[in-house]
Amino acid sequence: MAKRITREDALTREGFRHACHIMLYGDSGAKLFGKIPIKHIVLMQMRFDGLLGFPGGFVNPSKETLEAGLSRELHEEVGVAVSVGVDDHISSCLSQSPSSPRLITHFYIKKMTEPELKEVERAAVNTATDHGLEVMGMVRVPLYFLKNGGGLPYFLSHSFICNSRAQLLSALHHCRLLSQGELEKAVRQAEQMRHTHSDDPH
After folding, report:
1. Residue pLDDT, tens place only, 72-86
2. Can you tell me the distance from the alpha carbon of 179 to that of 64, in angstroms, rounded to the nearest whole number?
3. In the chain, pLDDT over 90 holds for what percent of residues?
């Protein structure tokens, strides 16, 4: 769980660590199997610990702005310079998890063109210093629904770091990439899959 606070409030608090992450996304005209519209590209990453999360990392506001620190982290993780501004800031949250005490997470969203996103994906493999170390690779979030829960429901049934799953759902709603009904359906199906997997003796 996390408590929302303002960006300004977050920066006045002493003794807290600050983690900044961003969702890079854009529109796409591609179709899966030539018939299922992809509609949008949303990038996340597989971390070194096997959990899904967004690009970014820890930032020290006493040495750099949140946005400058996030841009630096992005360059290390995706291999290209991505400018991030205050206008891209969406939320700041005070972590209430016992495993992450005195942590404030800042979330950003930036829309890019499909060619720009593809360049991020290429650079993340070819030039990023963190590839194969802290970051195992970029992944696209499937925003469509297939039979038996395939697509977004299956994706949501995986394990995410900290509050990144909630950040993803909130961002998809904020950007109107999916309707509230579609998001609720995906979450419901994902929970059913988790229960099914936990009950499977194999």
Report:
1. 999 989 988 899 999
2. 37
3. 59
What is the tens place of the pLDDT at every residue in 107-120? 999 999 999 999 99
- 8 Å CB contact between 140 and 41: yes
Please return the burial class of 30, using the count of CB atoms within 10 Å of its CB with bins 0-12, 13-18 and 19+.
exposed
> Which tokens in the block code for residue 143?
């925003």
Instruction: Answer for the pair 168, 186: CB distance below 8 angstroms, yes or no.
Output: no
Q: How far is CA 107 from the centre of its chain?
A: 9
HEC secondary structure over the chain: CEEEECHHHHHHCCCCEEEEEEEEEEECCCEECCCEECCEEEEEEEECCCCEECCEEEECCCCCCHHHHHHHHHHHHHCCCCCCCHHHEEEEEEECCCCCCCEEEEEEEEECCHHHHHHHHHHHHHCCCCECCCEEEEEECCCCECHHHCEHHHHHCCCECCCHHHHHHHHHHHCCCCCHHHHHHHHHHHHHHHHHHHHCCC
Amino acid in the structure at residue 144: Y
CA distance 137 to 124: 7
- What is the rounded CA–CA span in Å between residue 181 and residue 185? 6
**103-111 vs 17-27, strand pairing mode:** parallel
